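User: I've been trying to design a sequence by hand for this structure and keep getting stuck. Would you show me what you'd pick, starting by listing the structure so we're on the same page?

Assistant: Good idea, let's start from the same input. This is the structure you sent:
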């Protein structure tokens, strides 16, 4: 049944997106053989080679970190990429099953990786060029004295039984300005407008909760200026689509109760012309059973002068790290709004697998969830299976 759902999802996507999602699936080892021709847009009567020969000079194997929790799964990147895994000269890589196709996709000489590497280099170079031009107007200190630029570009596809097929892009970039002040930075990107303004935690975004997003109505371009007032206080002011202004003041504090237990608190005060003043509170507790297994209980709530009530969400689950940027999460989720006819809008279960697809800058994610949603107009609670695919490129 899952294979049939996967075919229906791929058939509705453009060829380029089908190829990207297929690379994600094969990199994670989940793509059935029957999806190969469909994902790569090959004719039904045209066979795809079962063996690929790669000629390349010898090089050292890539070394990736051995442990990574959810926060460290996508660490900040520097300009030095890890060495890619290159096979000895004239080595042959047989592709006897779909999961082995990842070996072919991951070769530095493959067209897909080459295209992604060029995209990553172009994004980083363009962002740095803009940052240097702006920073140079405020002084003569070398740009290299700052933290440089960093960002990410994400492609996400969601299929739910109760919604239409949904695909969207997310872009986030940060540029430090050493000439203006040590803790001053510029930021820009493309993101969900409500989540951007309210500073909703990443784990409770619609993308992570496998909820549908409308690109035209929900997403917006944004840009702004930020300043780190102290180690745990951050101030931001920016504009989003239609030149709408918003401001934020964020405070974060972490308490270590013991070597295995910690509490993470974050409070964001925001202001917009539409919502006036509002706040988002995030509180999480984590207990580490071992260096690779932990229990996490996370909560968030948002309220504003124009809102009808408190929009809240909570999750609890187990996280298992397998090293090399591989992380498995099994969680129970629930969300709702206090001043609504239906207090609990949705609850359900979600399993997520995160993995590096190439070195430490190309990351993949597959999520499968089953939910029980209920709208205000529904008399009874519905049921829905959801499958999400995500690919993130760090630059």
């Amino acid at each position: 049944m899952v294979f049939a759902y996967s075919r229906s999802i791929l058939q509705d996507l453009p060829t380029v997106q089908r190829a990207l999602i297929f690379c994600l699936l094969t990199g994670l080892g989940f793509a059935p053989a029957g999806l190969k021709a469909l994902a790569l847009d090959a004719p039904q009567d045209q066979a795809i080679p079962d063996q690929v020969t790669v000629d390349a000079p010898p090089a050292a194997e890539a070394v990736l970190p051995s442990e990574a929790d959810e926060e460290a799964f996508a660490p900040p990147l520097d300009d030095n990429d890890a060495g890619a895994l290159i096979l000895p000269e004239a080595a042959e890589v047989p592709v006897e099953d779909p999961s082995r196709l990842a070996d072919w996709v991951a070769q530095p000489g493959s067209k897909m990786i080459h295209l992604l590497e060029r995209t990553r280099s172009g994004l980083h170079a363009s962002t740095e060029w803009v940052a240097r031009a702006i920073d140079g107007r405020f002084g003569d200190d070398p740009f290299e004295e700052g933290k440089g630029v960093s960002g990410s570009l994400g492609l996400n596809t969601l299929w739910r039984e109760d919604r239409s097929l949904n695909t969207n892009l997310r872009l986030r970039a940060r540029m430090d300005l050493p000439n203006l002040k040590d803790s001053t930075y510029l930021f820009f990107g493309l993101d969900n407008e409500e989540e951007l303004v309210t500073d909703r935690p990443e784990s409770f975004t619609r993308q992570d909760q496998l909820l549908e997003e409308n690109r035209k109505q929900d997403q917006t371009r944004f840009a702004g200026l930020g300043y780190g007032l102290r180690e745990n206080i951050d101030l931001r002011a920016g504009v989003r689509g239609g030149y709408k202004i918003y401001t934020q003041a964020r405070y974060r504090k972490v308490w270590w109760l013991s070597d295995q237990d910690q509490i993470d608190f974050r409070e964001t005060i925001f202001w917009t012309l539409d919502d006036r003043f509002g706040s988002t509170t995030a509180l999480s507790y984590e207990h580490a059973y071992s260096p690779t297994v932990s229990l996490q209980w996370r909560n968030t709530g948002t309220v504003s002068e124009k809102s009808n009530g408190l929009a809240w969400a909570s999750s609890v689950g187990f996280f298992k790290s397998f090293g090399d940027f591989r992380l498995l999460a099994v969680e129970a989720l629930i969300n709702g709004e206090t001043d609504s006819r239906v207090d609990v809008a949705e609850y359900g279960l979600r399993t997520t697998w995160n993995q590096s697809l190439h070195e430490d800058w190309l990351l993949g994610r597959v999520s499968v969830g089953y939910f029980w949603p209920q709208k205000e107009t529904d008399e009874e609670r519905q049921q829905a299976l959801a499958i999400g695919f995500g690919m993130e490129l760090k630059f």
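That's my pick for every position. To get oriented when you compare it with your attempt: Helices lie at 2-11, 15-28, 35-39, 101-105, 111-135, 193-198, 215-218. The CA atoms of residues 212 and 361 lie 26 Å apart.
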